[in-house]
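anyone seen this seq b4? input:
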Amino acid sequence: MYRTSPAIKLALIYFLAGSIWILLSDQLVNLLIPPEADLLFKINITKGLVFVLLTTLVIYIRQSHIPKENSRRNLRKRKDGRKAYQEREEI
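predicted toks r here
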């Protein structure tokens, strides 16, 4: 069975979140804020920094679970290997 790598999943999540953020937040700012250049500039800078902060948190949370998943998988493999070895010894 084909499994998608964690890096590809993370990249796709980042791409989708970034695209949605850019499209929707720009439309929202344009609807709510009058077109004053200085204010619009500050809002867009703040919006970009919020995006970077949120995506950084998502990446950290996602990556912090990978070692746990890998260690559980490795533990299962070791247990299965020991069990198979014991079964061979019994024969």
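The mean pLDDT is 77. The first helix runs from residue 6 to 32. kinda curious what u guys think
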